[in-house]
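Researcher: Here's the sequence for the chain we discussed earlier.
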Amino acid sequence: MNTEEKIPVAQTIAVMCVFSLTMTLGSITPVMAKIYEAYSNIPTAIVTYVSSIASIVSILSSMFVGMLAGKKLGFKPTIFVLVVIFIAGGCVPAFIQGFPALLISRGVFGLAMGGLSVLGNPLVTVYYPENKRAGILGNSVFAAFGGAMILQYAGAFLADIQWYYAFLTHALAVIPLILILVFLPKTETAQDASFVKQKLFVPPKAVSVSIVFAAAWLFVTPLLFMSSVLAGTISKSSVTAATVTMFYSLGSLAGGLIFGKLYALAKNKCIGISLLLVAAGMFGAAISGNIALLCACMLIAGVGYCTALPAIMMIIGIVTLKPSVAFATALLMVFMNVASFLESGWIGLIEHITGDPVYMPIFVGAALMVLLGVSQFLINPFPRNIER
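Model: Thanks. This is the structure I predict for it:
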């Protein structure tokens, strides 16, 4: 694509609509307490699968879609099918409340989520030249977290009427679906043909930055798990705890918006700066003595993490040939899901060694985040021939 070619606004809106659905796995998290109550006759450990089964299934679908999207499956028809499954699987529990049906529907929803999560980055690679991608990927993080927040708040509102009404929020995906159908361009046939001929290959640099980001996720997650506990040591209000968590989300939104500017200023040092920001936010949160400081530190951590995310996606899109970008993105999602799976064991290990399950996992994660950030200054994660 000609780097001077003007990018249609409608096309960018359609691409952002895809991203807006990619982080909605946690859309029912705010209503899990009501779900536990509704299925009080079932062991709590089993009910938690309502939340986790979608994550597990998404690993399989992300790999499948990542291998075929752009090669044997066109981007636009694949997205259409996945969003329809997203709506159907997401809304079923609003009409059928049996627990087996609930688990199956969440599994079906996970299929859609896994596929959608790997399609945003290849769309950016296909439709935008390198000098436009930083801004687009930054905006994509804003769209992704914005979409997640809308579904969470809408779900929480509806759950106050009936717990199962929360699942109706997935029907909101009809709006981005229509915009995608109308505005997302179809890739050229010749390009698709060349895609099919090329073998899947993920460069070592793409794998290494994915592992770095998955490690960063492992280190920061104790802060997210324990944020309500930290808030509870200062205030017993559940509203206060929710507000503290919200500030991380607000930081994530802000991080997406400022990534383009950060990359323009820092170039190959932007990932190191981002990870050090996360570490600063984690240290500050762990030692904060009041809600205002805790909220500010959560905001800083969110900004740092979500300026690193589009940088990682950008590197994957630059170093990977277009036919393999979806598969490379799928590997990133797999590594992050593995990190999520290891999180409980990671916190448990630190608790076993230190005797503290709250503060020490945050301190240890922050210290390791500093090392990770410094390493990105010493080892340039960006390709040397990147367009400046």
